[in-house]
Amino acid sequence: MSETNPAAASEVVAPHRYTAAMANEIEARWQDFWEANATYAAPNPTGDLATDPALVARPKKFIMDMFPYPSGAGLHVGHPLGYIATDVFARYQRMSGHNVLHTLGFDAFGLPAEQYAVQTGTHPRVSTEANMKNMQVQLRRLGLGHDNRRSFATIDPDYYKWTQWIFLQIFNSWYDDEAKKARPITELVAQFDSGERAVPGGRSWNELAAAERADVLSGFRLAYASDAPVNWCPGLGTVLANEEVTADGRSERGNFPVFKAKLRQWNMRITAYADRLLDDLEQLDWPEAIKLQQRNWIGRSEGARVDFPIDGENITVFTTRQDTLFGATYMVLAPEHPLVEKFTPQEWPEGTHEVWTGGHATPAEAVAAYRAQAASKSDVERQAEAKDKTGVFMGAYATNPVNGEQIPVFIADYVLMGYGTGAIMAVPAHDTRDFAFARAFELPIRCVVEPTDDRGTDTSTWDDAFVSYDAKIVNSSGADISLDGLGVADAKARITEWLEREGIGEGTVNFRLRDWLFSRQRYWGEPFPIVYDEEGIAHPLPESMLPLELPEVEDYSPRTFDPDDANTEPETPLSRNQDWVNVTLDLGDGRGPRTYRRETNTMPNWAGSCWYELRYLDPHNSEKLVDPENERYWMGPRQGMPHGGVDLYVGGQEHAVLHLLYARFWSKVLYDLGHVSSAEPFHKLYNQGMIQAFVYRDSRGIAVPAAEVEERDGAFYYQGEKVTKLLGKMGKSLKNAVTPDEICDEYGADTLRLYEMAMGPLDVSRPWDTRAVVGQFRLLQRLWRNVVDEASGDVTVVDAEPDEDTLRALHKAIDGVRQDLEGLRFNTAIAKVTELNNHLTKAGGPVSRSVAEPLVLLVAPLAPHIAEELWRKLGHTDSVVHQDFPVADPAYVVDETVTCVVQVKGKVKARLEVSPSISEEELEKAALGDDKVVAALDGAGIRKVIVRAPKLVNIVPA
What we know:
Blueprint (H helix, E strand, L loop, with lengths): L19 H17 L16 H4 L3 E6 L15 H15 L3 E4 L8 H10 L3 H18 L15 H15 L1 E4 L4 E4 H10 L15 H9 L4 E11 L4 E3 L18 E10 L5 H6 L8 H11 L1 E11 L2 E7 L10 E4 L20 H4 L5 H13 L3 H5 L8 E8 L6 E6 L11 E4 L5 H9 L47 H15 L2 E7 L4 E2 L12 E3 L5 E3 L37 H4 E4 L8 E5 L13 H6 L10 H8 L12 E4 L7 H14 L12 E3 L3 E7 L5 E2 L5 E3 L2 E4 L2 E8 L11 H8 L1 H10 L7 E2 L5 H13 L18 H19 L3 H18 L5 H11 L4 H10 L16 H4 L4 E7 L2 E8 L5 H9 L2 H7 L4 E7 L3 E6 L1
Parallel strand pairs: 1-2, 1-20, 10-12, 20-21, 22-27, 28-31
Antiparallel strand pairs: 3-4, 5-6, 5-7, 7-15, 8-9, 8-14, 10-13, 11-12, 16-17, 16-19, 18-19, 22-23, 22-26, 24-25, 25-26, 28-29, 30-31
Helix pairs in contact: 1-20, 1-26, 4-5, 20-21, 21-22, 23-24, 23-25, 25-26
């Protein structure tokens, strides 16, 4: 919906009035000036960007936005909210004496460009670079103060050379649990070779063949390939990380079904860092909600591992309730558990309940059918609380180690291979899911935790499990151990000690976090710097062969498939370029030229954003990931930032457990290996809210163009038909997107900047209203009139001293705006600027220079173009960008008087104007002497006087 734009009016009457046309001319001119003069260049201590020692001597501020993806649709007004906010903050920090690094690159690998390539045949690079160019034009128009010398895209070979290099550092490392850090894999090899560390399996290192050694090392490497159950999405032709699958078991991008499949994939051993990823959260200045999401995703739980004997071997379970072992009446394995086939007999044991068999003639048939059924569900679907529990008896029994009972072993989809050991001991009396399963399959339910309600211990009368961590243990005695009468904590400690003494278990810690699936079966991503020899052994490329660039391919599509068919298998686009796949290389390992096969998967789109903060520091360094001195200067640990990192990182909260967790992991590995001084990438995180927009839908539920909707008598109409109005996201598909270009054309970029910052607190969502934009435009018009004559264009400020009221208004505004900008409260900062500007307008007459100049400086971070223009008109030849931000005079910030409320019997009887520094004794005397208070007391005595100087006196009569 739109209205006639007042921004372009009155140009004939007032030729020098601030209009949209003037705003656009001023803004384009100053953007050219900033670019030509490298106004926003941030010098480094060393290297090709070390240009200004005086600036480097200042305290630093590294301010970052989350990487934008260059969409073909371009920006709508919701996208730059965070970019404008960081720009305002960066400008304020420059004016407050800091050397500020603020720049922006592009996260340009990923599925959207590749999907477009599949549809059109256009190379992803062509469409991506065109999209970047369009976004750069849009962003430049907003007046963002970026150091463009530091910008890059993840698709630049000079950039992804170092992404590949970091992958090799991770591949060539292992996690030393004793040292609690990553170490080079060569040190592990040396330990195996010398006998200092035992080789898994018991053989000596020298006895192992090359392939056997590779297998051993793969069990330790932080980057490794394995055959494992993965989230296979045929509709996208690739596997997905757990974090990329929605709650209803579909792909986050494209909404395709996701299936479980077993494929050989690259993984990152992020689980090795689970404890450190948890512990170091405490030192980060992040929203508590984001910290909680990471804690929950990592999912640390203390418990015990317990071995249940079966046919001369063991099934190991992890449990947090080892105190309830006597109540375990059956076991459940994940359908994918590797021991399922091994312990599934040919025939059903005598006496097997019919309900356990699923109607199948043999255990093998039952297991095969159930596995196929489970494979069609995502982990999220399997974990969801379903009314009907499903599963099937394996045909095998295990032994409960505490009482020797033979308990049946089932497979069921509510147990996941990815959590714990993929096997559980089921204690149905005290776990809701186990209780439902036991009821469905007519399994025993034994109470071992005494209920604290009135249900009693006869489980046949129970409607649900009794779950408590604060009750006594019962029915839990064996030949040489008893837990009866103990509380949960004491019972856990006693049974854990017994398990360890008997050699059938141990206390341990488990995590929900799984290793990061790092392979994608697509074209548009970083190639892995890995080749395989004739034995299938993976070899890293030497650094001299980086970057390994993407080859040309004729077809960007994964193999044709049915998106609803779980049985399809991936065929990657890279695998079709045989000249690239099969190569003869000399890897410099002394074996000379040999034939190798390249890895044909590519890295996920998250790879490039795991470390981009480091490239901003030293973007042209071709010899090192980053110069150590530059990294220490911008990101090293310091007071209040024990792990170092970016000073301010702004972006959406949707990246809480994807990008943020992955980037933290990479940062810690690089820190352990001595490549960086910062163990954390981002010290302070701020999540901006979302700009929403009204969506209008017709009777069919179809979105109609919001700009063409008319409002009549409180109802909304499109082409004469009544439509419904709902608040939602802004986007092209919802036909409610407003582009920043439209607003800039109608009002100018400074108005757009002010409006987005003034809409409300930065961290909350707010609705867009184009009609309200004009309010901020009028603020700029009033500001302009307070400095420039609209008829002549002359500056109207005078050198006379302002009156005391104006000085107080000025210094209160300075003090308030400074505090607000420091705290990212941009909406209230604008309100204070507006209040000061309105004071000057109402005062009438010319504005004093000593007020006009600080007012322009207050506006400069928020509306930089008009501030530059007015600063120049006020006679200054240097840019406003590096001027000192005004400092308030405390004498004018404190009010001369404040209003003190005087109450008698809780009712206000008088208001006194008093000094802010008045003492309690003086205030009490003034209140008791006031005529209105004396009349209210009417001679009554006084029992008590409560004084809260300088604003309240409460008198309680006798």
